[in-house]
Amino acid sequence: MHPIFNTSIAAALALSLAACGGSKSGNEGDASGETATATGTATGTTSQAPAATEATPVSAAAADAAPSSFAICKSCHSVEKGKHVIGPSLFGIYGTKAGDVAGYSFSPAMKASGLTWDDATLDRFLASPMKTVPGTRMTYAGQPDAAKRQELIAYIKSLK
């Protein structure tokens, strides 16, 4: 494979991870404050996502129903139950307490936030995650467009 192509792949992956503010071991984070970095081999392969071993409860139609505004979200979040990548799976989170997804290690700030993922909370969080939960490791700057936030909220609510 051509060396310029390998560099392009690594750069694209690094930018995708930076958009979500990736963290250690594909988790929201731990107390060490370490963050994940994009690493690869000479062939340009990188992957921290676990391989799927069973059929997932999210139908192909639900995954395909994602609004275009969800594109940046899926670089860090899965919509499959129990499939965590850099961020936690968003499957079934609507109506749950923030920082309470089985199998995912959240930052102390998210665990202590006291938030419940409803329309108002999601709207505020998606507008400015770091302002809503100071200390979150989700470094996404936020979605300033209220209509796009509403699309995202409707989609997140459908993931059950």
Automatic annotation (TrEMBL):
GO MF annotation terms: electron transfer activity; heme binding; metal ion binding
Pfam families cross-referenced by the UniProt entry: Cytochrom_C
Cited InterPro entries: Cyt_c-like_dom (IPR009056), Cyt_c-like_dom_sf (IPR036909), Cyt_c_1A/1B (IPR002327)
Record flagged with keyword Signal: yes
Leader sequence segment: 1-21
The Cytochrome c domain, residue ranges: 61-160
Name this polypeptide is given: Cytochrome c, class I
Species whose genome carries this gene: Novosphingobium aromaticivorans (strain ATCC 700278 / DSM 12444 / CCUG 56034 / CIP 105152 / NBRC 16084 / F199)
